[in-house]
Amino acid sequence: IPMALRAKLKRNASILCLVVFTYIVVFKAVHLPAVIDQTDSMPRGLNPQRCVHDPVPCPRIVYPERDNESLIDLKNFSYVLDAKPCSESGEENLLVLVHSAADHFAQRDSIRTSWGAGSGWLKNLTIKVVFLLAKTPEESLQDLIAHENRRHGDTVQGDFVDSYHNLTYKHVMGLRWAVDRCASVDHVLKMDDDIFVHLFRLSEILGSAAAMKPRTILCYVQKQMPVSRSEGG
Predict the structure, then answer these.
(1) Which residues are listed as membrane-spanning (predicted)?
(2) What is the pLDDT of residues 131-170, one digit of tens each?
């Protein structure tokens, strides 16, 4: 493996999850079960001596000047576009937060016309789908996104640049929207726009005893991708 690619693997090795949140208050701490150690099938390019399967938690970052107008360390945060909130009657019991790129119109339409419209198929699952976007410098593209949201009312767009390194902003923006606009739902599912959801299986999982416990996170852990520590980490 070229040295540049090997370095990139070391920097970017992470645990990827498709996360289903069951929560009472989203931003409170959760208790997760221990992950079983698995040192076989180590990906090439990673030094086993620097990989850990039970990493020490990072220290909590404190932002003393943060307020309701901030998003993590972004001051004066605002929505460029906002979606319709959940119904006041609390009809929806599953909120799906979909990370999407600005120009992924086809992917969003595929979700809307397939599993995203599946509330009528299942008696115990009423779905609210919201697409999370960031701003784009292209005025013509922004006009198309605004038109899309006027038609469907399901787009939440933040006023930060859409980039891979800003995915944390997009994710936290989605959690904030869930708390402010859709606090009555029982479950929150986070996903990307290239994922197809098996609604019938999801309904079974959400109906299980484990999923009904408050403040629970359900996810698939890629055990072959342990945390890679940088020097001094």
Answers:
(1) 12-34
(2) 999 999 999 999 999 999 999 999 999 999 888 888 989 9
